[in-house]
Write a structure and sequence with these properties.
The chain has 408 residues and is an alpha+beta fold. It contains 13 helices and 14 strands.
Length: 408
């Protein structure tokens, strides 16, 4: 929900604080909220020229989120920082790092000679016309180091009243921003560990054990060859690096086709391409096929790199199947998993074992071929474990660079 309240413009910083508590916290778009705060601060008489906010995350790839507003642009920019920022000299010698380290406000008047300024950022702001800089830690209940910074280009800088009232406003901002930060953390953790769709469903309250829905989807199951033997010869760090590199290849191929990884099972990966109102089964099947083709290409390139570095190459196998699956919560009391289950899921894992037997990097079921006939060629009837009758198995008609051979 986004607030549309525009009836009364604030006249003081107290009005800005009151607006934040009454309506500002309802904003769903954090960038728009940041822009609205800047606008209201200006209306309240604060000579705002630049404003930034910096919030650490709980994300395996993103260290922190940042929002930067500049009066000259009239809008806020969203930025993200990787964990490499922690080792960056510019950050280590920045006002932000000092505020996070000390937990204390930091103010620097910029109308002094450049050599009198102790941070390169402040010298840059002075060169751009800035006259005063004020940074505040926002106190979170769990001591998360969050900062907000204000800068002005008004001659003489901020008044002492500005500084005092911005400090008081920071206490209100801390409560509002902490609410946003907690939700961002939950969303990111759910998306990272469950997947985008499953995370969204859990956050929306679909959390009861045994509850689920029947959906139609194309399913992709990929598995490494030769990994068990290789892992016995590598140390634990090398094994983790290898698996992460492989999973990255799968993830990029699946996400590029709007699919979602649901499960990592040892060195196996299961991904789903759900049918939706704007994506019938034919489109879902072709998305799964495109993802498989891309994975074949990227896996072959990865093997080339490994070979060039004197490392062992690996094989893999991909199976594709389609049909109805149950999508929901299963598990034990106190430990649930949001996943897909059903005969289609069982069949795709068994189908994948035929990759080795047929020396094919990709094998597919008759259901896949039914929706993408021009892209499939028959490999004949074959027996699958747990299925009484032989089933017809298919391979892609397009030529793919196969990396199945090294793991046979």
């Amino acid at each position: 929900m986004e607030s549309n309240e525009t009836s009364t413009l604030p006249g003081t910083l107290s009005d800005v604080a009151l607006w934040l508590l009454r309506s500002g916290w309802r904003y769903a778009n954090r960038r728009l909220l940041f822009e609205e705060i800047a606008r209201r601060l200006q209306e309240a008489g604060v000579p705002l020229w630049r404003m930034g906010a910096y919030i650490p995350t709980i994300d395996p790839e993103v260290f922190g989120d940042a929002f930067l507003w500049k009066r000259s642009e009239g809008r806020a920019q969203y930025l993200s920082a990787s964990y490499g920022l922690l080792d960056d000299d510019d950050y280590q010698t920045s006002p932000l790092h000092e505020i996070a380290r000390s937990g204390e406000p930091l103010r620097r008047r910029l109308e002094v000679p450049p050599e009198a300024l102790d941070y390169s950022l402040l010298r840059e702001l002075k060169q751009q016309g800035g006259t005063d800089y004020f940074g505040l830690p926002l106190p979170f209940s769990d001591d998360t180091p969050v900062q907000i910074t204000f800068a002005t280009d008004r001659a003489g800088g901020f008044s002492e009243t500005d500084i005092r009232e911005l400090s008081d406003l920071g206490l209100v901002l801390a409560r509002v921003v902490e609410g946003f930060a907690v939700r961002m953390r939950v969303e990111r953790l759910l998306n990272t560990y469950l997947g985008r769709d499953a995370g969204k469903r859990v956050l929306a309250g679909q959390i009861l054990r045994g509850r689920g829905e029947t959906i139609e989807a194309a399913i992709l199951f990929a598995d490494l060859r030769g990994f068990t033997a290789l892992s016995e010869r590598l140390d634990s760090d090398a094994v983790l690096r290898l698996l992460n590199a492989y999973f990255d290849l799968v993830g990029k191929a699946v996400q590029a086709e709007d699919g979602e990884i649901l499960k990592f099972m040892g060195d196996g990966v299961m991904a789903v391409f759900p049918v939706a109102p704007d994506r019938p089964m034919t489109m879902a099947v072709n998305s799964a096929l495109d993802a498989a083709s891309q994975l074949c290409r990227s896996f072959a390139d990865w093997n080339d790199e490994r070979r060039g570095q004197g490392e062992e190459t690996l094989g893999f196998g991909i199976a594709l199947h389609a049909g109805q699956v149950i999508y929901g919560n299963v598990g034990a009391s106190g430990r649930l998993d949001f996943t897909v289950i059903g005969p289609v899921v069982n069949a795709v894992s068994r189908l994948q074992t035929l990759c080795r037997e047929l020396s094919q990097p990709v094998v597919m079921s008759q259901e896949i071929a039914r929706h993408a006939a021009s892209r499939c060629r028959s490999l004949g009837q074959h027996a699958m474990r747990g299925i009484a009758q032989k089933v017809e198995v298919f391979a892609p008609t397009e030529t793919v660079r196969s990396s199945a051979e090294p793991g046979r």
